[in-house]
What does this fold into?
Amino acid sequence: MALIVQKFGGTSVGSVERIKNVASQAIAEHKKGNQVIVTVSAMSGETNRLVALTEGVAGYMQKREYDVVVSAGEQVSIGLLSMAIKSMGTPAKSYLGWQVRFLTDSSFTKARIRNVESERIQKDLDAGHIVVVAGFQGIDSEGNITTLGRGGSDTSAVALAAALKADRCDIFTDVDGVYTTDPRIVSKATRLEQISYDEMLEMASLGSKVLQTRSVELAKKYSVPVRVLSSMEEGGGTLLTKESKEMEHVMVSGLAHNKDEAKITIQGVPDTPGIVATIFGALADANVNVDMILQNVSARGETDVTFTVPSSDYKEAMDVLIGPMNQVKAKSIKGNPDIAKVSAIGVGMRSHSGVAQRMFKALADEGINIQMISTSEIKVSVVIDQKYTELALRVLHDAFELDKDIGDRVYS
Ligand code: ADP
Ligand code: ASP
Ligand code: MG
It folds into this structure.
């Protein structure tokens, strides 16, 4: 007997019909003689609706109460799914995050899981129930409700799989696996049979929302066997694996994009020690995550500092920087929220030079200007004007021949 965790996203539980379909899939796994835990998101559109309600009643973010409101969507979907499973003849029980006890820290809106208690669930599983658990939510040590950040049900599922030492964690979604890039943007995108934890981690953190970044971190840390599959059609999906030798032959395995960042440039700062410490210290104190940073000194001995922040922190960052700007005697500050980050990812990049050059040339050939660049062992990212995102993904997909079988890709 195996223990399987299944996770179904918003679209997969988006209607009564779809909830019944999910119930059938959970029951099919149970009928094979396996123990089954199902984690679900809120019905599609529901979390967005709840977020909009919070914005409607308050002019500023009240994080504790926000979590109380936005976690509500999952309560409905777990209840409905349990009812559907029971009415099809299999015992089922639903639990909210605090009932299981998903213990998290107190970072409302983006809490991190500290511990998942397994006793209650294990008891129900042993008694023959399918256990249905709300994704996306937990409770802190003070008893406050917390949420894990948008897309957090993936993380709930992987955390449950790790805590209960599940044999498999199947993430069912509205695409049939992880693709070379978002298949809704590039029609030539192809499904990957497997992807390493490290590549998936980069893809997710660079914007591929098919899995929440934290879920991949946990899967890697606890070696959870994760598959990404379609909830609507049969198919092998994509398996997350440790790196294999074979993967190292592939220079680039995927492309990611992120439109949810903004660029800020502080201009004309005298070039003296402590400038960046002052600027980024202020942002760190305000809990603003800074991503790419570019600093250069002009011939006049002045420094320009450019960096990116999440769009959700953009306004706060601009406000927070007024004090430090005066302190470091900067001449001006400019913000641009209409940017996108496009990234090429692949563990094989380590042993291939020329990835960045191929990327720059493909973008230049289309007249797309590169505003910032950052590289690591397994990725190259560029910041471009947001209106060219889709075009950039398409030309890069062609440039890296990602639509071809691995063996047929000819790189110079
Ligand atoms: P769920 O509601 O099931 O959690 P999400 O909308 O969060 O689903 O994630 C699935 C979506 O991720 C797909 O519909 C697709 O548009 C997007 N996506 C982005 N990048 C990729 C990729 N590389 N492979 C597959 N899907 C991707
Ligand atoms: N319902 C939450 C969201 O929309 C969590 C999830 O879907 O994973 O972000
Ligand atoms: Mg999701």
Summary: Residues 9-12, 41, 151, 173-175, 178-179, 181-184, 208-210, 254 surround adenosine-5'-diphosphate (ligand 1) (CB under 6 Å). The first helix runs from residue 16 to 31. The two ends are 50 Å apart (CA to CA). The first strand starts at residue 3 and ends at 8.
